[in-house]
Amino acid sequence: MSLTEASRVAVVDVGTPPASGANGLSTKEWECVDVRVHGFRDLDVMRGNCVSSRFRCVGTVWELRVYPHGDIVSDEGMVDIDLVNLDDHCIWVEYSVSIKGKDGEVHHADSAGPVTFEPDDPWLCYDVQRTKILEDLVDGTLVVQVRMCTVADGSQPLPPKPFVADNPLPQLILEQFMDEESSDLTIEVTSTSESAATGTKKAKTSATFHAHRFILQQCTSALGDLCKAGGDSTPVRISDVEPQTFRHLLYYAYGGKIDDEDLEKNAKDIIDAANKYGVVGLKLEAEASYVSTMSITIENLMDNLLYADSKNCALLKEAVMDFLVKNWKEATEKLSFDIVPGSLMKDLLTAVGAASSKESSGTDSNDFATMKVCTLRKMLHEKGLPIDGSREAMIVLLRSILQAQIREVL
Predict the structure, then answer these.
(1) DSSP string of 328-397, one letter each residue
(2) For residues 364 and 402, is the Cβ–Cβ distance under 8 A?
(3) Mean pLDDT by 10 residues, the chain (410 residues)
């Protein structure tokens, strides 16, 4: 694949230039590249997903990742842009990232330097409100200008970070997964249940798992209860979870990472099991995978809404409500809402309110009512608080914290 080469920014000196950096003048040689994202306004890209382009600048291959609706952890209504060094060595550069408007001038510029870019380490170099970005589209195209120069003039780049091995404890714990010799608990899982994803009856399957009481007791109270049920020679018997799904659950409890493919393929089965046994992190990972890979339609809207409500999946519920607001006319013509719990009305009103204020230029950082679920979860996680709650429960918790901070100040 051929890469776009950056062009040099020409400088013409008349007379003898001053010492480097004097009077704001620079003798550094800058290179410039424009990355054009066509049809930006209408890109069908979900929050947390990006479009990207590769190019070469200052002798290094880069990737510019543009998140049209923000990264999964960014605030609502933002556009995020990451720079990634794709070469196998560190590079020390100064850079600026800006948006070129209809007039050809740069807007919303952001710069930094010197910065050491590690290989394959995304660097958030730019974030700006989406409403401002949309004002500067050129015939629907977002033009991102990247300017770079290597650190010169006698400056020495920062040495690469010395290699330091990771703490081996997480890997040592993971290596105990299914280790029969050291285990002190046996779990037999047998199931003939229906698949949550397809609703089809599966053949009877069974499997034996060897686990450690100490690890399960630290994971969740529900898994800890399994330890009480089993004795030294008496296995714990489970019949309400598919063996493969329980294996994912147990592997995660030991610190393992479930493959994206497995999450996508078995998302609802994993949500069901993780919800039942209180494995919050895995439940939210599976929910995020389901929301990111599943397309909500009028035909599946009601099933997804009722499922989200029954499993307390706030992110999925939010996605369904957002779709409902955008397609309200078709929904009112084709769907019956008689079986929808009245408690969901508040979620619907929240989606309506968020949609009506989406194009506003400012948002109160304490206006929890219109914040997205990911933002609420992030705020709670940063404070070490539970994040597996309904939108309403998360807002109540955040407001109580805010009120306590206000009382302390007063």
Answers:
(1) HHHHHHH---TTS-GGGHHHHHHHHHHHHTTT-S---TT-GGGS-HHHHHHHHHHTT----S-HHHHHHH
(2) no
(3) 54 56 55 89 73 86 87 76 86 87 76 80 81 87 88 52 84 94 92 59 81 91 80 82 94 94 95 95 95 92 93 93 88 84 74 57 58 87 88 89 74
